[in-house]
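Section 5.1 Outputs to date
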Amino acid sequence: MAGSLAKGSLYLMSAQVAFLIAGYIIHAGLGRILGPATYGIFGVVLYLSMLTQDLVRNGVPQATSKFIAENPKRVGRITKTSLKLQLILSAGVFLFYFLSAGVIASLLGDTTLKPYIQLSAFLIPASAFFSLYVNILNGLRKYGEQGYCNILYAVGKVFFVFVLVGIGLGVYGALLGYMVAPLLGIFFARHFVKTPASESGRGINPKKLLNFSLPLIFYGITFTFLLSIDLFFIKRVLGNNVLVGYYTAASTLAKIPFYIFTAVGMALFPAISHSTSTRNAKLTRHYINSTFRYLIMTLLPVVILLSASSSTIVSIFYTHTYAPAAQPFSLLVIGMACFTLLSILNSIITASGKPWVSLTFLFSLVPISLFLLFLSVPSYKLLGAAFAMVFTYFFGFFIAALYVRLHFNALLPFYSLLRIAVGTVILLFITLNWHFTPVTLLPSYFVLLLLYLTILALLRELKEEDVILFKKLFRVV
């Protein structure tokens, strides 16, 4: 089962990489085509849309994944109930968001945003049903099929965005591209979801599904709000679309580790749901310990390399026009590493049947982030916002890690943490004196990561069984 979990993580991580590449092709292209000011408008509208999409993208879909994982033989009945609830919820959210566009634009201090916000409302139903179908595949542990659908969505998004922007539709075209792309994923996901012709037993109670969904809905919107609150704050307080464009670039690039490594949480969710529902504490501890060992081992060097080469990365993706984005990016990527870990810890807590605990941890960060942004942004602008979010995300990770450690008696063995920390510190000192250029960036990453793995091997943290597992995974894929 551990091998299956690792293989599932790899499938989903591959899809996340495709999603990541597609997203950065879009953002880099639009940043160059639209310029900082218009790109800043696109960024604000996109993150607003993502905020509302999370009302329908996390609740019912993730609850559906959990209940299907616990009883795959009832997939047809659970799916039918979920589709009805998702239709009602997405229609309500769409109408509310569309009709509130003028009020939202006024709150952000820019009434010209209203038509863009209204158009982005149409992303809500498309996103709602795409998310539902891929979570059904997740509950069935069809990780490969789930990955394929995500890749199709990502590729379709790149194609439609640039075609529509290319014919002169600007921000409207970009938003339309984001709306059409999920339809490709829905088409193929429906093909992969095969339900039995007849099922024994009763269907799931809609109330039970909705009760589990509610904290996830609140969790989803709080989650995305915390990912974008700094951008909204900059838009409202500084009111400069060029600065908003720089910060959008920094924030987008900083999410690289998040998009890659949250795939681990997707694969871990149904596994923890099953092990906790069968009260298999030993298996649950094994899942958590092994997952976090690999996660910390791979996440930390990625963050160090991205932060150290921030100026080079910004110039590659957005050209030197966006040079002011480099410093906030170098800080935000550290914060996003903490937020990634927080996200995966909360997946564990939610999968164990305690979504309200996850929500409480996350919601407690909202007033902290607002207070810190209020103190720092007026004086320190983009860097102030970045510092505020790094502290907020680290605090959230700390309290979630403490809960998982106390509740499951698992997280990461002390000596593994110590050895990984030593290897990471050595890598940090080397990168501080390393000169990165656009031409040497990828070769530098390769050399430095190889050096890091060598250090772990010398410290006896990288073991023979790790290499064997790695080879097996890629031989299967």
